[in-house]
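Issue 218. Parser rejects a valid record. Input:
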Amino acid sequence: MDIYDLSIKTGNTDLDIVIAEKSLMFEKNKIAFSVMCEAEKLNFMPSSDIYSLFGNALDNAIEAVVFLPEDERTISLGIKEIIGQLYIHIENPYVGELIRNGTALKTTKGDEAYHGFGVHSIKLTVEKFGGVLEICTDDNIFSLDILFPV
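Output the parser choked on:
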């Protein structure tokens, strides 16, 4: 009955569930996932927002790395408190070109009417809690950095 391996303990049960769910995709697609989290500080955020924020971020990362050779499929997640701020960093390599549409990224999928809402949803969630989002795409490494006041 327990299909999710909840062996990763981040300090936040909701995030543990998201990671456990995504671990099925990590395993299926031979993706190395590393996590270093002090996620107990995420307790200010309702479950639905944690699922949305981290679910979208990890889904996007998974979709990006599956196009890489197996030995390059890596995703990392880090959460730590730094000087009164909760810092979240998610990083993965990618192949191809990411196109910016102003400050947003254009979807890499063909049908823009049904895709491209993940990063927008992440941005809305971050702003909802007074946070700041920065996306960097240097050297074919996609980095999602979030700062929340705590």
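Fixed in the parser; the record now loads. The chain has three helices and seven strands.
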